[in-house]
Amino acid sequence: MFKFYILLLAILLCTSSCRSRRNLVYFNDLSNQSEVTEKIVNHAEPKIQAADVLDIAVNTLSTESNVLFTPNPTRQSSVTSPQDKDGYRVDTRGYVNFPVIGSIKLAGLTIEEAQQLMEKEINKYVKDPIVNIKYLNFRVTVIGEVNRPETFTITNERINLLEALGKAGDMTVYGKRENVLVIRENGSERTMVRLNLNKREILNSPYFYLKQNDVVYVEADKTKEKMYSEGNRLMPVWLTVFSSVAVVVTAIIFNKN
Known about the structure:
CATH topology of the domain at 53-135: wza like fold
Oligomer: single chain
Strand content: 15-25%
């Protein structure tokens, strides 16, 4: 009977421990040095794309000119999100329609380049204009094995993968840190790349800094798949039945003795 209990205990231990060990530490291949400094070479300013919504503000030395260039912009398509406010939407050709100067192409330019171009065009009408442009719909989506899957609106046009995961409450223990998928659309192209956050080299990836409309998907590891598979959902039931049968058999044996 003692051997029977040992066998039962061994089965339970095997059932609970047959899971491969996983690395839950970010950048665990970093050295043990207290400080590591390196030059950032992978950050590229996002470029304006079709369907972006821009806030464009013009300031000049003339009050009358300021009014001329700052009417309520006419939307080129409906913006239904409550996080949006009136802005200039970039059309499918990459143009925005701005007061006085008319249609101007901004797609393919960084914010700074677009500001310089518009200042050059507006300077034909008034002296020394100052143009400030910012995105109104710079969004990043984080889904999968994170604590708070969500779409975030970014105000400063600069966010990296770790910051995005932080906004989503970080990965759950089931999130595969070695296989994070980033989906990026640029015009008519869609790029999908898998990143290993256990490795330091990810810091220099061109996908470490996210761009507007990027989607980050954290895949669940096989442990969770097994937990929710049909067979493993029934495992607690089978263990309970097995334990009950063992107790009954033991009681019968002792009664006979």
